[in-house]
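User: Teach me something about this protein's shape.
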Amino acid sequence: MKNISATLAIVWRIAGPYFRSEDKWAGRGLLAAVITIELALVAINVLVSQWQNRFFTAIQEYDLNRFVSEIWVFLGLASVFITLAVYKLYLNQWLQIRWRQWLTGHYLGEWLDDATHYRMQLKDDAADNPDQRITEDVKNFVEQTLVIGLGLLSSIVTLVSFVVILWGLSNKAPLHLYGTDIVIPGFLVWCALLYAMLGTALTHWIGAPLINLNFEQQRFEADFRFNLIRVRENSEQIALLKGESAERGHLLQRFGFVIGNWYAIMSRTKRLTAFTASYNQAAVIFPYVVVAPAYFVTKSIQLGDMMQTGSAFGSVQDALSFFVSAYRSIAEWRSIVARLDGFEMSVSSAVDIAAHEPTIGIPPSSGKAITLQQLLVNLPNGEPLVSVDALTVQPAERVLVTGPSGSGKSTLFRAIAGIWPFGHGTIAIPQTARLMMLPQRPYFPIGALADAVTYPAEKGTIAPEKVADALIAVGLPRLAKRLNEDGHWNRMLSLGEQQRLGLARALLHAPDYLFLDEATASLDEPSEARLYRLLAEKLPQATIVSIGHRSTLDAFHTRKVTMVEDGEIHVLGDAGKPAQPEPSAAR
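Assistant: First, the predicted structure itself:
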């Protein structure tokens, strides 16, 4: 019971915000309409039960006129039932898509807000495969919540409606044992109740493991799909390394988890189906066996009463056995609820990192320089990584950051960008300054080349002519004619071409502070030199801070800072003005 109440609390936390959102009136209206139609369908079932009594009584009494009349009544009831059933499905689907649209937008907003998606990956409790949770899990949650919720409502109303009918029929057909009528008020109701309770208890005992098995199945399926996507995205490197055999082994190992868990689901489902099928088949004949003595022995009821008893008993038993019939769906639904709850908890944990844990402060500054004071950058587990006592980067300055690989240079850039909260100290950034970070492997969204280059600017805000000029300037003239071509540019271009494209993005956005994290490392030295001179020409007022290992970069920077190892931590120290190479090296 405690688990059920906890699950319902989570469901309300996930579902409730939609019905309080800006789309609440449409959502509430559609839900009210669907519920009204559901209740109307139950009312028609009650009328059909009463019709059955009259119809079969007419057959027993050979009353042709009444027989024909009842057929016309049935046709009217069937027409109304069909119309309501069609609109129930239509309005239900309309509610589903509106609810899913809002919930998907809500989750995307939280996931992509202020680098939450990035911080979620840094914690041990990160939700696996958030893409699946926002797509499949949201879709299935909305769909199954409505199916199970409306099914439960229908069962409750059906129970109340048909219990009254079945109670009345119990008075007509008392329990007959060994030639004696035993009067038990509503004994048919009690028979249905005991039958359903027994079935519910046994169903839960047999099917309980399905909840966790379904949760694991979704996780294994998502992991397998994610690894297939990784193979597709890294197909060139896999082919160059002849790694197909290794990848096949890894993928089959992942798929083995899918298969193993599926066999466990099969085994448990077989047991559950064997019981529920037997239970449902026995329920068909059980009410007729109970009332048979009243029809054949005492002749206290007519054929119509007997048929109505079977129908009413079936309706009551179905209502009471809702848990039995929907157990597998409920098990799948609870696993979906658990996955969405895990996603929300992971988002909340990522937000709390910046809100409550000791973090690096990034106060807005009225000055024009970026200033680092008493800064200590930690790993997510709390281990110190980089220490900076004091560092100031002035406007239009060219700073080169060097140091051993793995010393925390890129992590320091992440801290300056505001997405790495682990540590303490302050990074003061001018309030109106525009920063841009270019990593070694830049990101380009799938779509038109012009949109990929100008990302994250709104589509069409930068003139195509400017985009073409920037591509020509960075040495990609052949791409200047393909601005409207859609493509997966991270896969279609070499890493060197991607880095040129990243620098074209910097030229178009013209940031005040440009941070280059080995952003030219895949280019040959002459090309790298030409691009640095291009940045100096096109962005003369921009501050450029570069991470690099080549000595040829010294020529394009006026200041050098170095990571120096000090025990288990690296300290960033000012190395002064870089040594200028021979003039030929800068050409």
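Now, about its shape. Residues 244-297 form the longest helix (54 residues). The two ends are 77 Å apart (CA to CA). If you'd like, I can walk through any region in more detail.
User: That's plenty for now, thanks!
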